[in-house]
Amino acid sequence: MDFSTPTIDLIKNGLDNAKTVNSDQVLYNRIKEAGDSKAQLKKAAIEFESIFITKMLSEMDRTVDREGGIFGDKSPYEDTFKSIVYQQMGHDLASNPRTTFGLADQIYRQMEKYVGS
What we know:
By secondary structure, the chain is mainly α. The chain has two domains: 1-33; 35-114, no CATH class. 69% of the residues lie in helices and 0% in strands. The protein has four helices and no strands. The protein has helices at residues 5-32, 37-62, 78-95, 103-111. The longest helix has 28 residues, at 5-32. The chain is elongated and about 55 Å long. The mean pLDDT is 80.
């Protein structure tokens, strides 16, 4: 069987989409396992803040001028590593009451009146 470049690109795109669906499913499962509706709302609010912080860190990183940097040429694994680090940092910042931006708490207080116990 001969695989042309468009076929390989289609397969790669399918795998990338599968990863997205799987990570979304993992997030959904974490929220569903939180307990009652209010606990799920709290978890969803924290996860939303975590995603927001992760995206903010990634966008901030894109503004950094790296030409002539001390680390040399860009590694093919750098983007993957940075995305994992930013994801963990976002989760840690949003989950800790001392470092949170407060976005999760605001979302929770706004939405809790719409959620039963």
